[in-house]
Design a protein that fits this description.
The protein is mainly α. The chain has three helices and two strands; from the N terminus they run ααββα. The protein has a two-stranded antiparallel sheet. Strand 1 and strand 2 form a beta hairpin. It binds zinc ion.
Amino acid sequence: MRTPLFFAGLMTTALGALFFLLGALLPTSGGAVPFLWSVPFVAGGLLMAGIAPFLKESEGPVEAPAGFGFCAFCSSYVKLDAERCDHCGGLQPWARQKVAR
Ligand SMILES: [Zn+2]
């Protein structure tokens, strides 16, 4: 059960219902546009709430493997003894501290 997704789906469905009501109640809208806006919100919200019980709960923050950190610029794995990222070439904060000493 992925609880946040379930409640987000309920709120999205409620927003779609609000759009549906606005389409019916507002005299200037002509009805068609707000009504059509409600369809993807209701369908998507029901889908989100419908699949949430079958997904496992998320597992908290991702951690880098031992000896690696995350690149400060592109979030790729970078070895802790490397000065620059292999992916984007960014100078890492731990290397910059070495240079300053
Ligand atoms: Zn990078």
